[in-house]
Amino acid sequence: MMAPGPGATHAASFDYALWTEILSAIVTPEGKVDYEILAHHRALLTDFVAQLGTASPDTTPERFPTPEHALAYWINAYNAFVLAAVVEEYPVRSVWKVHDGQFFVRARHRAGGVLLSLNDIEHRILRGRFREPRIHFALNCASNGCPPMRPQAYAPEAIRETLHAATRQFLASEWNCRIDREHHKIFVSRLFRMYAEDFAGEAHTTAEYRRGVLRFIAEHTGEPFEAIAEYAVVYNIYDWGLNDVHRDPQLRPITFHESVETFHTQDGVLRELYLYDGNFCNRACAWCTVFGSPQGWYTAHTTRVLEGALAAVAPDGNIKFYGGEPTLHSEGLLEAMRFLRARGFAGLFTIYSNGVKARTLIHLLESDPQSEAVLNYSMYLGRGADPLPARAKALLEAWGRAHPQRPFSGYTVL
């Protein structure tokens, strides 16, 4: 390559001063966003988005002389485009509640003159090109489950160290990483399930992915890997509520988690299995995915079905009992659970319930220490459904305080 001749000029690197000015005005110390203030600064955000539209590492590479410059651009662009898309429709409760439902997939964000979707930037560009798993703790999709928003732009200088610090900050929150040493479990953000291959590297079984995720967590928390290498990984539910300082996150006395990893073909068996006994229910909710109602049908789990479940699921996996409403047929459910235990199933039983028959549900849980209940989110909070009766709710919450990590409330299907 020829050296530039006398008088040659270098293109100025992309400037994030305006982006930092915006962020410093709208981001709280906890990393939430004040969207009301952002609405007053919308003209500044529009100006910065316009700047992003004029240049990118793909179309004006001379302004992005190193991979770190490109990485900083795409992280900042993603976060700015998210805020621009939210403020267009604010107030909204979640990015999944925008008018067209295409928040992540619509190609409407101009970067260097090219229209891209948020998914294009995250998956094709950032994940595809940089192989840097710590981007997941810098990207903010305007949701409570996301990493905290940074009150200033990501700068190219020392960006790897900045990402390392962002990762440590994320994992320092008990909502994103909590170690239960008594039960040998580690509760982590669902980000680690959504992008397991980014954190674990090349792996082919659930066990390999689990250890890869644990190794990443150990590296970024200072926890000795050997101390947690055999821990079960529990994936907390992702809170998609808007990260608005004026709205409380959905952190409630009963929280929800996903206790099963993704299936991998080399596992040889399923990690989780759902068993339905019909759609007979003591509620009739319009949004029900199985059309449950008091006019529904019920069939007890047969020996053939239960033996098939044993053959299909890992002995330490997760068998999930759905309905209808399982508590309406508690004796049959108890028989099924005992049948499975007697034949060697040592994993977790999950009972999905509306919680109306609270005493029956508690009886089911007390019959087996390796069981848990997931309550319907909409009924538990009384959103879009008749609320859980106050007495039933009080019983379940009292039992839950005495038996932590046993009852949970599921998150709404958005």
Can you walk me through this structure?
By secondary structure, this protein is α/β, with parallel strands linked by helices. It folds into 2 domains: 17-169, no CATH class; 266-409, Aldolase class I (TIM Barrel, Alpha-Beta Barrel). Helices cover 38% and strands 13% of the residues. The chain has helices spanning 17-26, 35-40, 42-54, 67-89, 118-130, 159-171, 191-194, 196-200, 206-221, 225-228, 303-312, 330-342, 358-366, 377-381, 390-402; strands at residues 109-111, 114-116, 177-180, 185-188, 232-236, 257-258, 270-276, 313-322, 348-353, 371-375, 407-409. The strands form 3 sheets. A 5-stranded parallel sheet has the order 7-8-9-10-11. It has a 4-stranded mixed sheet with strand order 3-4-5-6. Strands 1-2 form a two-stranded antiparallel sheet. Helix 3 crosses helix 4 (67-89) and helix 4 packs antiparallel against helix 5. The N and C termini lie far apart (54 Å).
Task: Report a brief summary of the structure.
The protein is an alpha/beta fold and 414 residues long.
Task: Outline the secondary-structure elements.
Layout: H1 17-26, H2 35-40, H3 42-54, H4 67-89, E1 109-111, E2 114-116, H5 118-130, H6 159-171, E3 177-180, E4 185-188, H7 191-194, H8 196-200, H9 206-221, H10 225-228, E5 232-236, E6 257-258, E7 270-276, H11 303-312, E8 313-322, H12 330-342, E9 348-353, H13 358-366, E10 371-375, H14 377-381, H15 390-402, E11 407-409
